[in-house]
Amino acid sequence: MESDFREMLLLTGLDHITEEELKRFKYLALTEFNIPRKTLNIADRTELADQLIQSAGAASAVAKAISIFQKLNYMDIAKALEEKKKEAESKYVTNTKKRGTQKVENRSQAKNCSVASATCSDKDFKGHSATEVCPQVKPQKKQMVAEQEAIREDLQQDSLVVMVLKAMNPFECETQEGKQKIFHATVATETEFFFVKVLNAQFKDKFIPKRTIQISNYLRHSYFVEVTSSSVVVDVESSHKVCVPNNIMKKAGETPKISKLKTLPCGTIVNGLFKVQKITEQKDRVIYGIHDKRGTMEVLVLGNQSKTKCEEGDKIRLTFFEVSNNRGKIQLKSGPCSIYKVIKAAKPKTKVKSVE
């Protein structure tokens, strides 16, 4: 899959800009990638594509490149690159699911053959018919098992050493393995921060703010890191602690501007506190109109609603929402693991008139 991202980054992206535009791209890349200025300046397009991928990983490099093209207002290139990225990811997911399904079927066939052999032998020696030992797996169950097998294949083998910036309390969520307690966290290296979805609440005692930890066997998605039950999380010795710059900490904790959100690729994970100016309630969803000094946007919340009644002027704290495109309109949308909280606006104090 890395080769696909490398190819699209070069052929769909960097090859379609002029030398002057390439200089502008490199200038903005300094803030998005951990690459020395001197190395960037002398790199040609092919070398630059390699440097971007080495710095951020294949999928993340393409996502960041899309963001840079959007900042430069090269929207045709950004759109073409985003479409190529979606095609590659869709193809990859389909292939991994097929591999997982095939493995499950092969394992099931092998097990059935083993059972058949055993029952035949049992019939020869005991003189009675064999009973059904292993019933066929239901299609839905088989699909879930296949997807889990595919996920195990894609676990990252390298280790990620990070400082924990924030960790939320565990909450119950519907996952592929049924209902289980998960939690969200924010971690950072010396150059960037990550949102983390932790699918095992037992890791909560490792995700302590300001603690440096090492994560292995994790899933690296385009816009977040996923820690699964197969992951390993351990403390790091004090001599190897990560020192996160103040600007990275600030960036990780601040609410992004709405004007910025509208330029981000679909699927980008967003956390933040937003002021509500409109509420539209429907049977199975609520649409919040949010705003700041730079614009307005809609937030689509699916499923169960907050117990706290939200009114205009209140704020909502969003965690693990994603940028979505609804018929050409960019919005924030909740997912299975999203959570939100209503923050009531402070009521103005009423003056008490003194009675003379």
From TrEMBL:
Q: Which residues form the Pyrin domain?
A: 1-87
Please give the SUPFAM superfamilies that the UniProt record associates with this protein: DEATH domain, HIN-2000 domain-like
Q: Which UniProt keywords apply?
A: Coiled coil, Inflammatory response, Nucleus
Which Gene3D superfamilies does the record cross-reference, listed alphabetically? Death Domain, Fas, Nucleic acid-binding proteins
InterPro entries named among the record's database cross-references: DAPIN, DEATH-like_dom_sf, HIN-200, HIN200/IF120x, NA-bd_OB-fold
Keyword Transmembrane among UniProt keywords: no
List the protein's name.
Absent in melanoma 2
Organism encoding this protein: Rattus norvegicus
Show the taxonomic lineage: Eukaryota, Metazoa, Chordata, Craniata, Vertebrata
Gene that this sequence comes from: Aim2
